[in-house]
Amino acid sequence: MAPPNVTNPSAPQPTSPAATDSSGGRLWRNLGPGLITAAVVIGPGTITITSKIGAAAGMSLAWALVVTASFMMVFTAMSARIGILNQESILTLVGRHYGRWLAVLIGCLSFAVCAGFQSSNYIACSTALETLTGIPETTWMLLVGAAGLVFVFGARQLYRLLEKVMTALVAVMLIAFLFNLVVARPNPLELVRGLIPGGWPAELTGLVIGLSATTFSVIAALYQSSLARQKGWQKDQLGTGVKESIVGISVLFGVSLMIMWTAATVLQGAEITNAAELSTQLQPLLGPTAVWFFSAGFLAAGFSSTVVNAMIGGALMADGLGLDSRLNNPPARWLTTVAMAVGLGAGLYLMRSGTALGGIVVAQKSTILTVPLVAIVMLIMANDRRIVGEQRSRPWQNVWAVIAIAALVAMSLHRLNEMFSQP
Prior knowledge:
The protein is mainly α. The protein contains 20 helices and no strands. The protein has one domain (30-421): Amino acid/polyamine transporter I (Up-down Bundle), CATH 1.20.1740.10.
């Protein structure tokens, strides 16, 4: 069996953009992997947590969003560079240069993180559908799980389909919140003040950790390597691939900032416990229909993330185990099924143990526990000449990556202390 994700030498290779194209034209024509990563991250967790922070603290934590998005940019660009410069998948490289045990461990950790995110996606879908139909959440959760499996096993040419769907989803969310923000008339000075770093009340620490986990998604950044390779970029397109990954995360930041600013303007001081209360932030633009529009958007964000997130977990687990990690082939698809099943079980448990939105926050901030090791390995790979040659990370990128890892470790320790200190 051929190594996972190795490009077929006899297959037609993508041609480089014409020399007469402008650099901007080449960049926008090649958008894809970065937007898929952004759309996976812009799921129900991002909507819920940024809305709750905006309602509780206004724009005073906008600086935290800037910092976490910049962390994500650095690691996504690292991963894209590794993918474009190598014919082998990222965990195959880990296994070859650092030991198969480490590749297996990272595959398992990535799978666990995706299962954690998966549970919050199921909760979001079922909550939105209950709001729209009145049918209980648990019933919808089971049906959403079944629908995800139909998509995974029934869809052909998954990458092209995902690229189109994710691009459309990001565009719709961006436009909706942009127009709503204009109608809501936010205070620009509040945003400027919020960009100045500062502290936060202790009761918001959990939300800040959740914001970091959902914006700085290390596992999504890791998978950017595979997406860049599936896009077919060659070494002479390295600059375009890295820029595209940065543009994608810039979109993630822009959407997250607009959601936070909208909530800070419309919902400040409100106690948010369900999707219907979240939807009131769109009332300036949509009036009484806001709850229906928001629930439909929440469902779209949740379901798209449900499918793609599970595929990422399955593909990375397959890659770590040395199996074929391409999305259209059996190992990745069957492990995707397992990720869906684990996420479904966790979602049902979280839903029964508390409110739906509370379950989403718990699931998001718990994923922070497993990602520091993955981030450390990515940083080492991005500076290993055997992997990236002369295209190693620049000093400022390494410094910022070390700061990001230190933040991940601190949040993980806080989360562990929080878990063990609970009765």
